[in-house]
Design a protein that fits this description.
mainly beta, Immunoglobulin-like, four-stranded mixed sheet, four-stranded antiparallel sheet, 1 helix, 8 strands, about 5% helix, about 55% strand, elongated
Length: about 120
């Protein structure tokens, strides 16, 4: 029975969005917002523990934003260390539009994490 428990593994922690009072992160100099929509933790022999985060990037402003990237970090809730990071290209987001993206991040099975997701507009 103990061997079955060891082999089944599992990711025990919960992923949450970091930021002041869990307010969705905003892109510097633009009105873009990013928010954690859904999450799923998984364990496998090949990768260990992974966190799949579904994030929504919204443009509540009045102007189109081009060359939008979403910088996503899996951050250890206890130490503040970044465990994994990804840069996702979103493209253009028009006024009032929203985009949903999924990202898989690698973590340690027994640690607790938060996710930082910051939309960034690059170039003109």
């Amino acid at each position: 029975m103990a061997l079955a428990t060891l082999l089944s593994g599992g990711c025990l922690s919960v992923l949450s969005q970091s930021g002041p009072d869990s307010v969705p992160a905003a892109a510097p100099g633009s009105g873009l917002r990013a928010a954690l929509v859904d999450q799923e933790a998984d364990w496998g022999f090949s990768r260990g523990c992974t966190w799949t985060a579904e994030l929504q990037v919204a443009n509540p402003g009045n102007t189109s934003e081009k060359n939008v990237h979403l910088q996503v970090e899996l951050v250890n809730a206890r130490t503040g260390a970044v465990r994994d990071a990804k840069d996702l290209f979103i493209g253009a987001i028009g006024p009032g539009e929203e985009r949903t993206v999924r990202v898989v991040l690698d973590g340690e099975c027994l640690d607790e994490y938060t996710v930082r997701a910051i939309p960034v507009v690059s170039g003109p």
